[in-house]
């Protein structure tokens, strides 16, 4: 039913535009190319919607964006988004009156400077032409639903739109339109479905809007997809960065732990070395103290050996035996003390005892040295040396026995080993002579 009204609106709108075309082409000052230059102020050779909008503003014609777009689509017959001079000429010249059309084409063009308007009557008629296109658009908007030609049976056997095919369709719909209106409608669309579709596309831009919307949606989807990919890549980069940072932290912790372990090991080594050094120093000090005592004992032993060599008694002498026994006794005590020190470190008291013992030994050594000197003096003055190692002279009893001891002693011994009682000088063999024949000893 919408197509029924569309046929009437299309014929009426085209009739009004044709009337303005004839009036404009009938003007003596009208020339199509000069009129085109009036709209093409930049002189680019192609009109755009903003060029038409400037002309409408100059003539105080208010239009909306939808109305301006419709005016531009009516002028752009080849739909290339640019109104050339050929497009403008086909839209502005009469379609039903060839005589007036030829008359307008025969007018000579004239120079029109930039920003200069056409003659008043030409400017006014051209403004009326655009106003009528705007009104036609508003009238078409009364048909709210879009017309789908695939649902209309308005074609003949040759797939052409004719008056008869339109009548048959109208009879099926129960409607009737005059033949004159149908003939004008067929002339407008040139009997072709393609031309009718172009006319409908000029009025209803939903397809284009849908296409644009679809394109925008596709662009939005692509943009969203790119954004998602970028976000995903950013998340992956962040995760990789976090992983690298965690790995660096773990490595740093390991490094710190290794450094701490190394420091601890170094400290332990230093402590162990210090302990070893201290123990070595302690042992050295102990060994030094032991070595000092050993050295002193060895010195005493050497002195005794020298004295025995001087006396000619290398084997054994009473004094040498005495000193040797004393040395062995001290050495045994010292070995026992050294053995005990291994388990019981010496205390300061023990050290003091050692010092006292050392002093005592020094004193005894001095006494023995004095005795040895006295003996050497006696030896040098003596003429009788017994084989037993005992010396006899007139001063012997005076050196070793005091008068008190001589008076108290029961026996008086001589240098031969015999003892006498009192002054009788009776010989009594001693126990040593009874048991061993001294003269027959073998060495």
Automatic annotation (TrEMBL):
Which residue intervals make up region (Disordered)? 209-274
Keywords carried by this UniProt record: Calcium, Coiled coil, Metal-binding, Repeat
Q: Where is the composition biased (Low complexity)?
A: 262-274
PROSITE patterns for this protein: EF_HAND_2
Task: Extract the InterPro entries matched here.
Answer: Ca-bind (IPR051581), EF-hand-dom_pair (IPR011992), EF_hand_dom (IPR002048)
Q: Provide the leader sequence positions.
A: none
Lineage: superkingdom? Eukaryota
Every copy of the EF-hand domain together lies at 63-98
Extract one GO molecular function annotation from the record: calcium ion binding
Q: Where is the composition biased (Acidic residues)?
A: 209-248
Stretches assigned to coiled coil = 290-317
Has the keyword Transcription been applied to this entry?
no
Checking PANTHER family in the record gives:
CALCYPHOSIN (PTHR34524), CALCYPHOSINE LIKE (PTHR34524:SF6)
Its name, as the record gives it, is: EF-hand domain-containing protein
């Amino acid at each position: 039913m919408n197509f029924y009204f569309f046929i009437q609106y299309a014929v009426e709108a085209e009739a009004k535009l044709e009337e303005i075309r004839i009036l404009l082409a009938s003007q003596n000052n009208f020339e199509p190319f000069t009129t085109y230059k009036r709209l093409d102020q930049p002189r680019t050779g192609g009109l755009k919607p903003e060029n038409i909008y400037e002309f409408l503003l100059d003539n105080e014609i208010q239009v909306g964006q939808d109305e301006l777009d419709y005016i531009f689509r009516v002028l752009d017959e080849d739909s290339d988004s640019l109104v050339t001079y050929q497009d403008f000429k086909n839209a502005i010249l009469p379609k039903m009156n060839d005589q007036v059309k030829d008359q307008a084409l025969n007018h000579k063009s004239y120079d029109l400077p930039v920003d200069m308007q056409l003659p008043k009557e030409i400017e006014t008629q051209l403004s009326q032409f655009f106003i009528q296109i705007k009104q036609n658009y508003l009238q078409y908007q009364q048909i709210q639903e879009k017309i789908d030609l695939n649902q209309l049976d308005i074609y003949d056997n040759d797939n052409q739109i004719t008056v008869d095919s339109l009548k048959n369709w109208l009879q099926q719909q129960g409607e009737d339109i005059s033949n004159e209106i149908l003939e004008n409608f067929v002339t407008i669309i040139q009997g072709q479905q393609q031309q009718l579709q172009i006319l409908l596309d000029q009025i209803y831009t939903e397809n284009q809007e849908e296409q644009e919307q679809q394109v925008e949606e596709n662009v939005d989807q692509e943009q969203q997809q790119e954004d998602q990919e970028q976000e995903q890549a950013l998340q992956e980069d962040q995760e990789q960065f976090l992983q690298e940072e965690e790995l660096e932290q773990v490595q740093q912790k390991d490094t710190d732990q290794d450094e701490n372990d190394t420091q601890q090991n170094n400290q332990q080594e230093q402590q162990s070395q210090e302990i070893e050094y201290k123990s070595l120093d302690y042992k050295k000090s102990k060994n030094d103290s032991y070595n000092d005592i050993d050295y002193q004992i060895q010195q005493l032993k050497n002195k005794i050996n020298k004295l025995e060599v001087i006396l000619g008694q290398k084997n054994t002498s009473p004094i040498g035996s005495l000193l040797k026994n004393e040395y062995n006794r001290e050495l045994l005590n010292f070995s026992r003390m050294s053995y005990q020190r291994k388990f019981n470190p010496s205390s300061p008291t023990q050290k003091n005892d050692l010092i006292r013992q050392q002093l005592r030994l020094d004193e005894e050594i001095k006494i023995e040295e004095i005795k040895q000197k006295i003996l050497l003096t006696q030896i040098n003055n003596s003429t009788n040396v017994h084989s037993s190692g005992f010396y006899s002279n007139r001063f012997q009893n005076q050196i070793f026995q005091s008068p008190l001891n001589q008076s108290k002693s029961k026996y008086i011994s001589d240098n031969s080993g015999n003892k006498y009682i009192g002054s009788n000088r009776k010989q009594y063999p001693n126990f040593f002579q009874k048991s061993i024949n001294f003269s027959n000893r073998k060495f």
